[in-house]
Amino acid sequence: AQKVTQAQTEISVVEKEDVTLDCVYETRDTTYYLFWYKQPPSGELVFLIRRNSFDEQNEISGRYSWNFQKSTSSFNFTITASQVVDSAVYFCALNWNNAGNMLTFGGGTRLMVKP
Amino acid sequence: DAMVIQNPRYQVTQFGKPVTLSCSQTLNHNVMYWYQQKSSQAPKLLFHYYDKDFNNEADTPDNFQSRRPNTSFCFLDIRSPGLGDAAMYLCATSRDKSRTSRYEQYFGPGTRLTVT
Predict the structure, then answer these.
(1) Which candidate, A103, A77, A94, A105, places its Cα nearest to that of A32?
(2) Quick one: pLDDT band at residue B115, thresholds 50, 70, 90?
(3) pLDDT of residue A80
């Protein structure tokens, strides 16, 4: 079965705190792709990152970083020094090799950053 | 620069009255998708096109239809909207998969449909 679990439905932090959003996935395929999307209150999903299963290098982009660990089937997302503009719903998604272009989304994590 | 455009942003329709939502793209992507997203839920794929090749998800109700007259435009038709069809409808596009890669989807801002 192909599945994405985001156990944290809602997280609330104060501005400048670091926060990690968890994502655990299940797939039988050895070739797969993982994505993170941000959905701000305006509604549009914004692509953040894509990672394929053969590339376990962690990635940093400004205040954002991603930790991909195949051993624990996790692809966690950390925001350093959070800002109010980071408030959004964040979705982790999986595409496996036989799924064409289709994405399986996790349930999403709502992040609220308070000033 | 808008890349995936959805009109209208807000649509109100009456129970049972047909409604059409539109999507256009300037990315020249050959894959287009329609998703339904209800409050506090993840987007749910309704159908998608590879060029003009239509692919319906197994659990998409017959009440939902789609048209793609050309690469740039795609329409979602709801033939007889029910109260349960009130949701955000998201259009997305992507490049087609390659043998060695998958590509991110680009989403429009969505159309929020209210059924009265």
Answers:
(1) A94
(2) very high
(3) 97
Return the beta strands (E) in chain A as ranges.
3-5, 10-14, 19-21, 24-26, 32-39, 46-52, 59-61, 64-69, 74-79, 88-96, 104-105, 109-114
Nearest-Cα residue of chain B relative to residue A92: B42
- A35 touches B: beta carbon within 8 Å: yes
Are the CB atoms for A84 and A34 separated by under 8 Å? no
Assess whether pLDDT exceeds 80 at residue B97.
no
Chain A, residues 84-103, CB within 8 A of chain B, namely 91, 95, 100-103
Of A46, A52, A108, the CB nearest to B42: A108
**Ramachandran angles phi, psi of B51, nearest 5°:** 55, -120
pLDDT of residue B2: 64
C-alpha to C-alpha distance for A104 and A96, rounded to whole angstroms: 9
Of A44, A47, A106, the CB nearest to B104: A47
Average of pLDDT values for B50-61? Answer: 90
Task: Tell whether B27 is within 8 A of chain A (Cβ).
Answer: no
Query: Quick check: A62 and A87 in contact, CB under 8 A?
Result: no
Pairwise CB contact (< 8 Å): A46 & B97: no
The verdict on whether omega for the bond into residue B8 sits within 30 degrees of 0, i.e. cis, is yes
Q: What does the radius of gyration of chain A's CA atoms come to, in whole angstroms?
A: 14
B15-39 confidence digits (pLDDT tens):
999 999 999 999 999 999 999 999 9
